Amino acid sequence: MIALLVKELLSHGFEAVSLPDGEREIDGVYIGDLLSWVMGRAQMDNAWITIMTNVNVIAVASLADTSCVILAEGVEMPEDIVQTALEKEVNILRSSKPIYETALQLAELIS
Question: Which residue has the higher pLDDT, 98 or 2?
């Protein structure tokens, strides 16, 4: 597995929404929108792909210690939640691609 830093995703078409710690390494990918499920199954340093944009995403990302949250499908996160992400030092990126294509792209980058 190749060590990939969160900030390196910016050169692969991902957009930074909140990037307080771009030096975090990504060592896997988790996909899910059921927050309780993600909280119990996402691993530390995973990139978490979701379409959820509420404040609970920040809490779950922090508890699971994911390296970043990637919002797929071009969804937008409200500015007040972006501010919370910055305060909690949660990296959030965005992709215009569908979830499946976003996951495939990440898989190529880290394998």
Answer: 98
Q: How many Cβ atoms from other residues are within 10 Å of residue 84's Cβ?
A: 18
**Using one digit for the tens of pLDDT, what is the confidence trace for 40-89?**
999 999 999 999 999 999 999 999 999 999 999 999 999 999 999 999 99
What residues contact 100, with CB distance under 8 A and at least 6 apart? none
Give the predicted TM-score (pTM) of the model: 0.96
pLDDT value for 1: 66
> For tokens 């809490």, what's the residue?
59
User: Please, what is the Cα angle at 28 between 26 and 33, to 5 degrees?
Assistant: 105
Q: Which domains are assigned to the chain?
A: 4-110 (3.40.1390.20)
In a 13 Å sphere around the CA of 63, the CA atoms on its Cβ side amount to 14
